[in-house]
Each structure stands twice: as C-alpha cells, then as structure tokens.
Amino acid sequence: MMPTRKNYNQNWLPSIFNDFFDNDWMVKANSTAPAINVIESEKEYKVELAAPGMTKDDFHVQLADDNTLTISMEKKNENKEENDKKYLRREFSYSKFEQSMIIPDDVEKEKINAAVNDGVLTIDLPKKTNEEKVQARKVIEVK
C-alpha cells in the first residue's frame, strides 16, 4: 500500500483568518433564547430568566388583560475602535428576545414585581390568599 500524500494548501494564512472571523459561530451564539426557570411555592410563582450582560433598561415586562405575561429584551451594541488602529472586522451586535406565557388565575396581579440582579431577571408573581380567592368569586343571582 502506498502512503497517501496530503495536499497542503500553500495559502494557509487566509484560511486561518477566514476560520477565525467566520460568521457561523456568531449566528449560533445569538440565535439561542435565554434560559427560563418557573418555580412554584406555597405563596408565589417565580420566573427567572438568565440574560448575562443585560440591565434593567434592556427589559420590558407587560401583563395583558387576558393574563398573558410578556417578557421582552432588546440590546444594541456597537464596539468602537480607535481611529489610529486598523481593524479587520467591526462588530455591530443586536439581540432581541420575546417570550409570552399565560399566568394562573390565582396570581395577585397588582403585586407582581420584577428585578434584574447579576444578569438574571426575576419576576415575582404572588399568589392570592384563600380569603382573596373567596372575595374574587362572583355570585350570580338566579331570578
């Protein structure tokens, strides 16, 4: 058996730069949605959304009349280069995410709050007490 001869590309340097600066890894990194945890305890539901590098100004949390909780985030970045340096690639990044979920009927809507801490958005959805559940029931008079 004859040994096989590898065909070495004499123009290897551009290949290294093309591999390093290729867009494929960026598309994969930006196309993933943040991880979401939903936790239930006796007194509340808690939604946690992992979004490293995001601040409270990047988030918008909204509750619609149909009990739909919508979490959206948007971040635009421009990496600025100094004028005296030559750059091989300039990056503009844009991240956008939106997730909607129906909240249970036993949530006290007026007491919902949200906060961002260490790149995690936490939304607290307190449950109604038994007394509040009884008061929320509507009795219909039969005529």
UniProtKB/TrEMBL annotation:
SUPFAM superfamilies documented for this protein: HSP20-like chaperones
Domain named SHSP: residues: 27-143
One Pfam family linked to the record: HSP20
PROSITE patterns (alphabetical): SHSP (PS01031)
Stated family: Belongs to the small heat shock protein (HSP20) family.
Record-given protein name: Hsp20/alpha crystallin family protein
UniProt source species: Bacteroides mediterraneensis
Lineage, top ranks: Bacteria, Pseudomonadati, Bacteroidota, Bacteroidia, Bacteroidales
